[in-house]
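Researcher: I've got a protein sequence and the SMILES for adenosine-5'-triphosphate. Could you write out the 3D structure of the bound complex as structure tokens? I'd like something to compare against our soaking experiments later this week.
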Amino acid sequence: MEGRRTERFICTLNTISTISSAVHMACSSLNTDILLHLAVEILTEALGSKDVFCAVYLYEDQRFNLKFYKAPFEVPAVAPKELLKFLRHRTVAVVEEIPEFAKEHCQEGMLLIVPLSLKDRIIGFVPICTKEKIYIDNLQEEILSTLGVIFAMGIELIRLHSETNRRLEEIRAMQARLIENERIVTIQRLPAGIAHEIKNPLAAAYGIAQMFKPGEPVEPDLLNRLLKTLYRTKEQVFELLKHSKPTLQKLETVRLSKLLEETISLLTYELRKKSVEVIREFDERVAAYVDSSQMGQVFLNLIMNAIDAVKENGRIRIRVKNGYDGSAQVIIADDGAGIPEENLKRLFVPFFTTKEGGSGLGLSICLQIIKNHNGRIAVKSKPGKGTVFSILLPSA
Ligand SMILES: Nc1ncnc2c1ncn2[C@@H]1O[C@H](COP(=O)(O)OP(=O)(O)OP(=O)(O)O)[C@@H](O)[C@H]1O
Ligand SMILES: [Mg+2]
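Model: Sure. Here is the predicted complex with adenosine-5'-triphosphate in place.
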């Protein structure tokens, strides 16, 4: 009695040791060949007979391909069809009939099939041929089946690991390509970007200069505006040359009504020329945390677009208010030509323009500056009725 209990105890210990070394191997080996080699060793050991021949087939490209074998005879490279029917039950199968290729060496023996199965599928199997018939008890069957699951998980782990590495490599290569492309595009667009940034403030300066009357004393207010516009132009050019795209520089609390008022005054000439009325609905308290020079550029681009869009005696309504989500909001609406539906989605794409002599960079630069401020810009338009641009900025 005592002897049987000791025997059972030793058997349990052996089982635990076999399974734990299988788990250890499955989790630590990152090489399929090594894992398969060890798997075969452990499986044959669990069978309690050294006199066996093994092979490992793994499922790839819709068939089971031979990956490893330990036998003195040639094992088929693709699993023979007659073996596959034993995988149906996903448990260890004992096959009395020895397959043709092993018959010579295992005439008196039998064939065991250990499936390598995961929860949802079989990823392979291990046929084991014995030289003689052996008796397999339930516990051994259970152990072989558990080992099959453990090795299947190990193989899957290695596959997932190399797949993840491959994907990471792809992402890294893609990132490098994107950065390179962006660099090329930025370099290609730099001259046009600089030209655009100078063009709009220069056009405003030209408009102011038109108001100087020859022979009459220079009005200090006009001179002041002219100087301010030229100063802004110089700032923009400096910034573009430094960074090739607008970056945040001097973030400060800016009262939006004041900044808009300054921008409108730079456009006095254009507004007068077309008799455009600017209707202001300014909440004087609303301030945003922005770079005033860059945001001034945004407003200048948008108001110039609005002036271009309206007819003689047109109207531009500019509102400053608190946005719905606590941000500061500026709305610039005109009653001009409006934008056809098909152009709406291309509006912010660099170089999209419908104007003769337009660069199509105004709105793309606006979008870039607003994004750099963590703000948002949206547009709504009805052809023939007008266009509304809404900008949300971080409030101060
Ligand atoms: N308020 C608006 N009303 C109608 N169309 C507009 C308005 N604002 C922009 N657009 C359309 O969007 C296009 C792109 O504007 P964007 O400011 O980017 O370039 P542009 O004005 O054409 O050129 P640039 O800014 O160099 O003068 C314009 O050509 C015009 O078709
Ligand atoms: Mg424009």
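Model: The chain has ten helices and twelve strands. The first strand starts at residue 52 and ends at 60.
Researcher: Great, I'll pass this along to the crystallography team.
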